[in-house]
Amino acid sequence: MTTPAEFVEQNQDLLLQTLKEMTCIPAPSRGEHRRAGYCLDRLSAWGVPGLHVDEAGNVVCTAFAAPEGENALFMAHLDTVFPEETPLIIRVDGSRWSCPGIGDDTVNAVLLMLAMKYMAERGGQGAIFALNTCEEGLGNLAGCRRLMADFAPRLREVVSFDLYRDEVYTGCIGSLRYRISVEVQGGHSFHDFGRPNAVAVLASAIDRLYRFAPPPGTHTTYNVGTLQGGTSVNVIAQQASALFEYRSEDARALRACDKFLEGTLEGFMRPDVRVRLETVGERPCMGDVDAQAIREIAAVCSEAIEAETGVAPAWGRASTDCNIPLSMGIPAVCCGLCRGGGAHTLQEWIDIASVPAGARAALRILEGRLH
User: Fold this and answer.
1) Residues 297-343: pLDDT tens digits?
2) What is the 3-state secondary structure (H, E, C) of 57-107?
3) Could you tell me the pTM of the whole model?
């Protein structure tokens, strides 16, 4: 039987060509359909059976699931943080390939596709594969939520391929995301001077929110991601809005954040000022999970990455698709497979020379988690 190393060598050209093509397909959160269609066609051509696209747009393979007992779910997300209109041109500088989204998470998704091809040739049971949607931004992990709704009772664990090879994520960071909106009467900047200005009200509210003292003993953060409003320099702005988030590894801290936010905004409400708060995303914190099971999965991932790349990844926490299974008590670990950087920037890059080793690491992890 072909060894994992031989398989990667035989498929290296196919791997790189697939990466080139897939990187250049736009895939904003909730707009991944073109990339999903490409993956479905490519995997079918490779002879991968048991494929379907579910209600959330995930490309799912159940051909290798154990009919009874528990399975490992291997996943990588299709979406990127970049809008549909973002130019996607791969720029090559030596072994560095730069393009928005190439490392987070396109290369890992392509390596997962290769693992599915390997399984189609190898055979075996105990694995479900998914190229999932809506991991980034306001996607609110909708793809992973759908997968858990469909498969949670059949799962032993989850392994997500995401980001870069220098870290294995064994825990999760929860978050609460909001849209804060302010509406007022508005008017002319000179003739109606003195009326409330929506932009000014919102700016004052944000200033107050940035005085929040996080609960001691927790790593809790807050951030205004966008701020918009008004129509012209000589107009008292009638409306303004902002996207705001809290993050913490502690669910109690997030509840304290939520209470502070609501109380702060209530202080700005007046008969002539309307303030609205809308929750646009919620990523849960860690539930009651078997810590030893997580360590076992993380050890397999770490050892595979180190064996193939020479890099011993650190263990840490992050906000990923694993938030959902971890919140449900299902052991889950997230790791990247290649060298890269600049995630969420237009200058995002990967070291293409690290991709074959990443592919071998992916197959090692797959082999190590099949029971």
Assistant:
1) 999 999 999 999 999 999 999 999 999 999 999 999 999 999 999 99
2) CCEEECCCCCCCCCEEEEEEECCECCCCCCCCCCEEECCEEECCCHHHHHH
3) 0.94
